[in-house]
Amino acid sequence: MDIQNGETRFCPPGPYHDFEVVAVDLGFPEGPVALPDGSVLLVEIANGDLTRIYPSGRKHVVAHVGGGPNGAAVGPDGAVYICNNGGFTWDREPGMLRPTTQAADYAGGCIERVDLRTGTVDVIYTHCDGKRLNGPNDLVFDRQGGFYFTDYGKRRRNEIDRGGVYYALPDGSLIRPVIFPIPFPNGIGLSPDESRLFVAETETGRLWSYSILEPGKVEILPYPSPNGGVFVHGSARYQRYDSLKVEEDGTICVGTLYQGGITCVAPTGTERDFFRFPDRSITNLCFGSQDMRTAWVTLSTSGRLVRTHWPRPGLRLNFSDRVLL
Fold it and tell me: Is pLDDT at 4 greater than 50 in this prediction?
């Protein structure tokens, strides 16, 4: 897709935030994780791969996990944990790739552990309380070593699943529901002091906050809250929210779909910035480098990873320095 000689219908109008292309020809990239050496791990949902992108742009498939790897995070043991949505069918046009309904061979979603040194993939969770995980999407580890994750559910021609948020331990010993139901939960993150959990809903384009009472338990507010959360932000533009990361000062940065970019929201709910990128599906970002002011952004429809200077330092994620390569 050439964006230098006029826009295509797959790109929102500019002007765009400054960026440098790091890698191209990726299969709908998501879940970027910045590594200490300057390389980035990400998932390619359409290819079923966990891939390492080096600063030169060289790509190395660490593991083929199959299905639909959707989110990734480094755990306390240095391995990478993946939310696998089970796979999509895809709408493919020149220069564009877009997920639609669940894959024909879909058999459920799961949480997986990948040993980066060997490429070994282990399935950790497929069910919670006897009910199948339908479409795990994004995850974040807390300081205690557990992780919260969203289950977006799956779409079929005439129906969709109800979504939820769950908490689990990486050794496979505990998984429990935290928020259920919540429609189309996607991005998930923690405030810098880990007193609040943030969840982005895709189809409503809304960002919610929950007070954490203890690891894996949040305060659920009564009606009229539709999902037990505190409303933080909803864009005045037509936006669908995807995954998110948090800055050092607590600003929440959400990947946005349709008008592709990163929406930055202060903890008070005020929109601070909207950084636009040339793609309809800006699905996620991660922060890295010594000062945490380098951001890598996934431009998923066009299959690119880009790098940009961020105006504020990002929050360093728990266990990101423990990755075992």
Answer: no
Q: Helix, strand or coil for residue 320? A: helix
16: which residues sit within 8 A by CB, 6+ positions away? 276, 277, 278
Q: Alpha carbon of 39 to those of 20, 51, 289, 321: distances in Å?
A: 14, 10, 10, 13
State the chain's mean pLDDT as an integer.
94
Per the confidence metrics, is the pTM higher than 0.90?
A: yes
Backbone angles phi, psi at 321, to 5 degrees: -90, 0
Q: Mind listing the pLDDT tens digit for each residue in 257-274?
A: 999 999 999 999 999 999
Dihedral pair phi/psi, residue 80, rounded to 5°: -105, 130
Domain 20-317 has CATH 2.120.10.30: yes
Among the listed residues 229, 216, 206, 102, the one whose alpha carbon sits nearest the alpha carbon of residue 154: 102
Compute the distance between CA of residue 26 and CA of residue 34 in angstroms, rounded to an integer.
Answer: 17
